[in-house]
Amino acid sequence: KKLFEDRRGVVELPWCGEEGCGVEMEEILDASMLGIPYPEEMAKIEGKKCANCGKNAKYVARFARTY
């Protein structure tokens, strides 16, 4: 959440891929999930933990505040 306090733009965070987890992240960040990079192969990551639940992350998800 601190990422959005001082700046605007898009933030990329590791995400497990679970829809419910993505919704929680949106609520915590007060931001919208824009999706994952395209093509999907560009979004896949290994060795990172989900920023919300701590499970193994499968993707990089993009979040931004909308005005």
Walkthrough of the structure:
The chain has three helices and three strands, in the order αβαβαβ. The protein is α+β, with helices and mostly antiparallel strands and 67 residues long. The chain has a three-stranded antiparallel β-sheet, covered by helices on one side. The radius of gyration is 11 Å and the shape is globular. The relative contact order is 0.34.
Task: Offer a quick outline of the entry.
Helix content is 28%, strand content 24%. With 67 residues, the protein is α+β, with helices and mostly antiparallel strands. It has a single domain (2-45, 54-64), classed as Translation Initiation Factor IF3 (2-Layer Sandwich).
How are strands sequenced across the largest beta sheet?
1-3-2
Number of helices: 3
Spans where pLDDT lies below 50 across 5 or more residues = none
**CATH homologous superfamily placement:** C-terminal domain of ProRS
Count of folded domains: 1
Summarize model confidence as the mean pLDDT. 90
Overall shape: it is globular
What's the helical proportion of residues? Answer: 25-40%
Structural class: alpha+beta
- Sheet having the most strands: 3 strands, antiparallel
Fold-level CATH name: Translation Initiation Factor IF3
Strand content: 15-25%
CATH level-two architecture? 2-Layer Sandwich
Instruction: Determine the N-to-C terminus distance.
Output: 17 Å
Tell me the radius of gyration. 11 Å
**CATH classification, class level:** Alpha Beta
Give the ordered list of helices and strands.
Answer: HEHEHE
Number of strands: 3
